[in-house]
Amino acid sequence: MESLMAVTIGVLFATAIYMMLRRSIVKLVIGLMLLSNAANLLIFSMAGMVRGAPPLVPKGLSAPAGAVADPLPQALVLTAIVIAFGVLSFAVVLVRRAWEVVRADDLDRMKDTDT
Amino acid sequence: MVRSGTLILSVAARLLLPLQLLFSVFLLLRGHDEPGGGFIAGLVASGAFTLYFFAYGRGALSKMLKVSPRDLVAMGLLFGVLSTLPAWWMGEPFFTSQWWTIPVIDFKASTPLIFDIGVYLAVVGSVLTAITALVDTDHADDSRD
Amino acid sequence: MQLAILAGFVVAGLAPLLHRGFGARTPLLMAMLPAAFAVWLASLWPVLADGESLLLEWAWVPGLDITLTFLIDGLSWLFAMLITVIGTLVLVYAGEYLKGECDLPRFLVVITAFMMSMLGLVLADNLVALFVFWELTSITSYLLIGFHHTDPVARKSAQQGLFVTVGGGLALLAGFVMLAQAGDSWSLAVLNERGGQLTGHELYTPMLLCILIGAFTKSAQFPFHFWLPNAMAAPTPVSAYLHSATMVKAGVYLLARLHPALGGTELWEVTLSLVGAVTMLTGAFLAIRSINIKLLLAYSTVMALGTLTMLLGLGTEGALVAFVVFLLAHSLYKGALFMVAGIVDHETGTKDVTAMGGLRRVMPRTAVVACVASLSLAGLPPLLGFLGKELMLKSVLAADHYGGLILLLAFTGAFLTLAVATIVLLKPFFGPRVETPKTPHEAPAGMLVGPALLAALSLLFGLAPGTLDTLVEVTVNGLGAVEANVHLALWHGINLPLLLSMASLVLGLLVFRYWDGVRRRLAWLDPLIHRGPERGYEKLMAGMVWVAEWQTRCLQNGYVRNYLVMTLLVLLGLVGHALLVRHPLDIEMSIDAYFHEVVVAGLMIAGALAACVMRSRLAAVAAVGIMGFSIALIFVLFSAPDLAITQLLVETLTVVLLVLVLFRLPRFATLSAPAERWRDLVVAGSFGTLMTLLMLSVLNGERLPRISDYMVANSQPLAHGHNIVNVILVDFRALDTLGEMFVLALAAIGVHAMLRFHAAEYDAGHGQSGRRGNNG
């Protein structure tokens, strides 16, 4: 499964980069969303993917009975998802502000600080 | 852009809000032992408030929340920071978790729980800040155009 | 004690509140703080007098072996005492000096914070803690030099002081790291017992040089001396405190503190004694060249600092005794003289010593204080300064390396100092009365009490040097000398130092007599010792700005794509190189997936590709949404319930957010030329391939032990939680989560600020959108 995920993640990264290299600012935002998803998935699957063994300690025990999925990347990704949302909302508002002030969709026309 | 008010939305929002909030508190409290926790509960609560906000508008939301979403963020950070201090008081390194049992209801209170509440508030606050700010300026634009 | 110092910082922050309540009396109130510290330190004296030293331990970051342990021995006690006593007097003095200044609360905040940092610096036992306090003194000093922030000269001087001292601080940090590596401890008390291990270590030379740069910049040694006179842009109480009695002595303190650990080698002795002697001479010459009373004193401070460094370099028992006595004498008379200079400036409205005279008639009390203090500076009996100078000359006479040269430099320094002392005393206070911009009056009691007390102490200790015996003995023992037995006395009979003293008296008076001529004749030295180093500093700063401009023009040309492509190409190059060349690429593809899992992966790929090719904004958002929900499914299938819930909720909120904004934004347009699109496709494609290869090779690589095993095993026993992911978030790695909460908060504040700013612009009715607003 990890090999399959590796290919998937590669495609996700490629699309994200492609979209971020567009000149249209809205496409930049979409690229950003793709990128954060790709990165989350990368961290998650890098640790090895385990079916049906969530990192929970059963009631009454002090440690899980068998092997469980690695909880650390899960914790990392969990915060990353929420942070990505925060960053996305910031980016969206920034893009919207930029559009209102400059009235240009083209990033090449936003290269000076004083427009 | 966002108009408050179809009937179904209003009714749904009014009925769902308490349920969703209750659910979010449930998720928050059980988070230490089962799937859930501050981030998830915070997102559920923000979803609930957002729905209510779309149904009834800014005024109703702020009347219900009593405080501005930004203050929620600040409170969240404050809870987060405060939860680090009891360890200090006990003479242990900063951030060491402390556990107390509240006798009558046999509830485990702890600094991680306080911290999680901080996370919850910070998440709700930031999401609502973003969404209300966007809608506010929309209204400003609409009234002008 | 540690808590008391931290609380001191809090008190500093409360100064504006106190000022609201107590007004002009606040400085007196704040003076209680250092006074209380002084009393506490005094109460420790009996313990120290027995030769004991105190170690107050307090773990700060136990995981990294960083403690906030305080070490109180003779040396740190002496410094701490000077800091608190002079601090108290300076605050009392400042209350009068800055009366009516509207920025008084700000001054009190910063100077109290400085006091606490300085106290922390001299008491800290841990190198990291010492460094933190060291940098705090640099920062607070910056704020104090630039106190009159509307004055460009003050701003420039403040910046210069900051750059020089903080730049030296960087070197110091490197030195500390090497020191801790070589000595295998962060504790000064431990390091000082491992002197032999350190001086023989291969890192000894680089470590010593780094530490010396840090100490020399802080203590204004040649060629870094130029920032100190410029720092005189600060209000006089600050000059009296920071730039004579305390901060500039931090470097000297550090050298003294590390003397047992690093001293005793030829490198140490030669560097310190030569640099010290050269600094001494430089300061003396520059002082003679100045006519501004504060500058005169500043340069004579440079001179004194040079003397102290030189004495540490000599390192014999006699030199160390001289070091302690000279240090104490200098702090007392220089503090007093600076305060007197402040009074003179305050009363006459000028700092030019040639433009004043005969002040002793209008301000007799100030004149008496000035007299005592400058006689101590001159090194005349029966003052403490005399004792310091005698001991200094005596130890120079016994120097091992370059004895003749150092003696010559020291003797020149001594008679020039005497000339400076006479100028500072005689020019303003004696001679015929000269009209000054303001009509002078006797200074108010609040301004006189500080200098008077310090001058009185100079006299007292000079008359009864025996009272200092124990203090000097304890301090010198802490400096690593063999069991010293100190008996200070004014009169040693007629010997060589006394004869040298008398010669310097005659020469000094001659210099004073022909001061104008001497000053003009010495003009040729300016480019060498004054302008030279400062010009070097300016050239360096200009060069830095030039490089920054050049690389900004090259790399940050304003096209977002160029930044991205450049970053990606570097990444591709480096990672690709490591992946393909440094390690043999070993990849094993295995498809052990169930059918439904393949479908989900396919959905993700389809969603991502569709998001790229869709011509409609809504369709693109929907495609990203499909991808997001597929990821949530992956989380469900592969044992991550928390992630699945979070991803679902965030996806939903993202859609809400985008729908709110998207239709306010322009439609998609095709802007790039086909060739550009091919280029981007290649970059994106190769980056995607790199990530795939990277992941595959990591999966096939050797597995290191996982840190999460500890978390899985201890989640329930230690943290009482059954959901390990949540336990990591709120307990094991709670500090990270706290940081992430701050990121969220910042994003929210950013969003809010951007939209608020927008609304404010509409209100103001200017800018493009503003005009639209008015028309609408």
TrEMBL record, chain A:
UniProt entry keywords in alphabetical sequence: Cell membrane, Membrane, Transmembrane, Transmembrane helix
Compartment list: Cell membrane
Major localization listed first in the record, in broad terms: membrane
InterPro entries recorded: CPA3_antiporter_subunitC, NUOK/Mnh_C1-like
Gene Ontology CC entries for this record: plasma membrane
Superkingdom of this protein's organism: Bacteria
Protein name listed in UniProt: Multisubunit sodium/proton antiporter, MrpC subunit
Native organism: Halomonas caseinilytica
Automatic annotation (TrEMBL), chain B:
Record's subcellular location: Cell membrane
Any one annotated GO CC term: plasma membrane
Major localisation: membrane
First and last residue of the signal peptide: none
Keywords: Cell membrane, Membrane, Transmembrane, Transmembrane helix
Boundaries of every Na+/H+ antiporter MnhB subunit-related protein domain copy: 8-129
Transmembrane segments: 7-27, 39-60, 72-91, 111-135
Membrane topology value: Multi-pass membrane protein
Pfam families listed in its UniProt record: MnhB
Matching InterPro entries: CPA3_antiporter_subunitB, MnhB
Family in the record: Belongs to the CPA3 antiporters (TC 2.A.63) subunit B family.
Alphabetical list of PANTHER family matching this protein: NA(+)/H(+) ANTIPORTER SUBUNIT B, NA(+)_H(+) ANTIPORTER SUBUNIT B
Protein name (Swiss-Prot/TrEMBL): Multisubunit sodium/proton antiporter, MrpB subunit
Organism: Halomonas caseinilytica
Lineage: Bacteria, Pseudomonadati, Pseudomonadota, Gammaproteobacteria, Oceanospirillales
